[in-house]
Amino acid sequence: MLDLDALANHPMLHIRAATDADWPAIWSVLEPTFRRADTYTYPPDVTEEQARHSWMKVPTAIFVACNDQGAVLGTYVLRPNQPGQGSHVSNCGYVVSDAARGMGVASALCEHSQQEALRMGFRAMQFNFVVSTNEGAVRLWRKMGFEIVGTLPGAFRHPRHGFVDAYVMFKQLQQP
Fold first, then answer.
1. Which one of 14, 30, 118, 158 is most buried, counting C-beta atoms within 10 A?
2. Helix runs in 13-134, H state only
3. Is the pLDDT of residue 3 over 60?
4. What's the predicted TM-score (pTM) here?
């Protein structure tokens, strides 16, 4: 696992809890991804207010990854995957700005989210809907120890590829 103290002091990347003041920068990261409609189930015409409610109000915790100058490079949300008897399994969603792709931001966010999930008492992490054509994410999540535990045939309507599969991916964070 990533050393969070080392990450917090990394000269290029700082991950911290998001604040309401971060919303304009977070939206500038989310909007292009949501508008492309090729990796998230948000409708491409989602309004800023709808996205803000979903990203900033519903999750248990919201984080941002910033560079040395404080620019937001990526963000993630962390929440229970299910209520009640399933609330020990966490769920996350990650988005990295187009300009920061390939810089290790998604890896750092995923590592950080696993540490946060453990700190918050979660025992596992599940991604409910990883679009199969999002090959970079599938490859990264597998590298990070997640397994594909289910395939939802044709569950995602991709704007270029038509109906494609979505994966359910899972990782045990601590022994049951």
1. 30
2. 23-36, 48-52, 105-119
3. no
4. 0.89
Where are the chain's structural domains? Answer: 4-124
Backbone angles phi, psi at 69, to 5 degrees: -85, 0
Chain length of the chain: 176
Strand order in the sheet with 14-17: 14-17, 61-66, 72-80, 89-96, 124-131, 162-172, 147-158
User: Taking the CB of residue 97, how many other CB atoms lie within 10 A of it?
Assistant: 21
**Of 36, 88, 90, 38, residue with least CA distance to 60:** 90
Q: Beta strand 162-172 with 147-158: parallel, antiparallel or unpaired?
A: antiparallel
Confidence of residue 10 (pLDDT cuts 50, 70, 90): very low
Quick check: 89 and 81 in contact, CB under 8 A?
Answer: yes
Q: What pLDDT band is residue 11 in, cutting at 50, 70 and 90?
A: low
| CATH entry 3.40.630.30 includes domain 4-124 | yes
